[in-house]
Amino acid sequence: MTSRIVVALLSVAVPAAAGAQEKPGAQICLAPTRVEGSIGDAAKVSDAVRESLTSFLTGPSLGVSALSARLESQVREEAVNAKCRYVLFTVAKHQRKQGGGLLGRAAGGAVQQGAWRAAGEIGGSEVGRIATHAAAGAAGAAASDLAYNTRSRDEMGLSYRLESADRKVQTEKTVKRKASSDGEDLLTPLAQQAAEAVAAAVAAAPKS
Asked: Under a CB-based contact definition with an 8 Å cutoff, are residues 50 and 141 in contact?
């Protein structure tokens, strides 16, 4: 009797676990962000953009795979090998306009962390909430590090281009934001704006 119960439980648990590990249908390959200008370490800016976009583009019908190749030709080849339906290219530029103080940066970082905690409460299921918290936590930390060095009147631009597997551009735009105070998180709202456009383009694309 006991063995039959164990077998029955496994028959239910295994498919459920397999389903939880399945990749979403619209898999997006995210190329490393090209940084044209930055305040501080360009690699950290690139990482912060990746974390932020990944957090916004992770959901029931969307998923992101980060690529490592930097040349566009190699990025596309890597995306083909990963069997991604789309490739997302991004360019970040952070320009300094004016100096600012430490207190303002610290306050801005605290506000940004609070916003990410609130975002983590949005989720349709327990698994979704856990994934959202994990993604938001990583992205929030990366964006917070970037915001710490932001000063009033700094400007950040984020360019994005989403291509389908056959290299057709699905959406392309540059969005910009200027800091109104020291420590302001410029990246998160830009990443969210870009992610919303990317998600809309994916949803509108013909399903193969």
From this structure: no
Q: Read off the tokens for 194.
A: 């870009």
78 contacts 30 by C-beta, under 8 angstroms: no
pLDDT tens per residue, range 18-53: 433 445 557 899 999 999 877 778 888 999 999 999
Domain span holding position 198: 25-204
DSSP assignment letter at 58? -
- Spatial contact of 132 and 120, defined as CB atoms under 8 Å apart: yes
Angle (CA) 34 37 176, round 5°? 85
Find where tokens 């990366």 sit.
Answer: 142
| Alpha carbon distances (Å) from 169 to 13, 86, 100, 156, 160 | 41, 10, 39, 24, 11
Residue whose entry in the numeric block shows the structure tokens 């009797």 = 1
What is the value of pTM for the model shown?
A: 0.69
State the total domains in the chain.
Answer: 1
Contacts of 104 (CB under 8 A, 6+ apart): 151, 152, 181, 182, 183
CA dist., res. 137 & res. 8, Å (int):
37
Asked whether residue 79 is assigned to any structural domain, the reply reads yes
**Using an 8 Å Cβ cutoff, are 58 and 119 in contact?**
no
Tens of pLDDT, residue by residue over 71-87, are 999 999 999 999 999 99
